Amino acid sequence: MEPTGKDTDEDLLQAIQRGDEQAFVSLYRHRQGAIYRFALHLSGSATAAEDITQEVFLTLIRENCGFDPARGTLSGYLFGIARKLVLRFLERARGDVALESEDGDGEVDFSVTDDPLEEITRRESLDALWRAVMALPRRYREVVLLCDLEEVDYSDAAVVLGCPIGTVRSRLHRARALLLEKLRPGRPARPAMRALKPARCAV
Amino acid sequence: MADEGSNGHLAECRACAAAWEREQKLAVAMRALRTGHRETQAPQRVENGLAAAFRAQTRLRRANAPRPAWVPVVTWLSAAAALALAAVLLIRDREPQPAPRPPASVVQFAADIGMPEMENSAEDFIPLPGAVGLDSAEEAEVNLVRLELPRSAMAALGFEVNEETALEPVSADVMIGPDGVARAVRFLEE
Hints:
The complex is a heterodimer.
Chain A: H1 9-17, H2 21-43, H3 46-61, H4 74-94, H5 123-134, H6 138-149, H7 154-161, H8 165-182
Helix pairs in contact in A: 1-2, 2-3, 2-4, 3-4, 4-7, 6-8, 7-8
Chain B: H1 4-12, H2 14-37, H3 44-64, H4 70-90, H5 104-112, H6 116-120, E1 126-127, H7 136-139, E2 143-150, H8 152-155, E3 169-176, E4 182-187
Antiparallel strand pairs in B: 1-4, 2-3, 3-4
Helix pairs in contact in B: 1-2
């Protein structure tokens, strides 16, 4: 089967399960960027993101890949697998290196002297915004990565995160409020990395 | 997006208007961020590895796929039908006959269709008892059908067949005239 531009993810998945390699490559190329970026930005590791992306698409090759169309879209399903793998990676990494705190008390400092929202076309402004996103606590960062950066809709995001749509909305609202607070002009600079947890040695 | 009621409030409340404006700027900045990050893709080696894994998995699946249950059934039904056909034709003349020369039409047929291997081996075709020769027009419409017949069918044509192997299949080419009646048969194995 030669995949056409109109084939849906579900069409391609059915072709994949019949052994159609072209369909598999087509689906991979369509979805890999978003999955890779999500894994990269959530894990902070390019190596982990590569492994996770590979593992996500390997599930489609299996006889019973576990996708249930009644529960959501294939895209949401793939993001869900990626998220679980990232969390597993972060859990393993937690014992080796210190990571920023989950509750958001100790935000990484990224002081800017001017208001980046006034000059959004400037590269520095976008860099500042990006640093602010990456400094968000995980539960807010992942919803920003999914909804604002990868344009996953709320219902798919709810499936990925395993929470109600209302929770997705409220976390996104809170995340945006945190970003606006971080990027507020004239915000006093805080000592950097103050609230990082001390490193725990694997003894 | 602000609706009419909200727009009315924003026109009156400076604090909310300022907050709304900042949120809109954040949304614009997010769009710019999204566009810039689109270039980030997984390395090509990920795709290469996945494609190789897919091919390996497909090969493994095909090698382990069980044959459909109907395949042996159809094979033996076909062989049984061919045997029944041969038996009906052979039963007309019970007295054993010495194997006559193949009808001239068989050799001519091989020559006409330019199959040197068939022409050379036309002598291998054994006319079925009672087979009627073909005229020149009919020769052009002869069909050659390759079947699997039980070895016991060979016995009906004068071959010696081991009792133990009587039911084993043997490949055979059957020459069938345009009227659908078999004219000759050639066994491909002894």
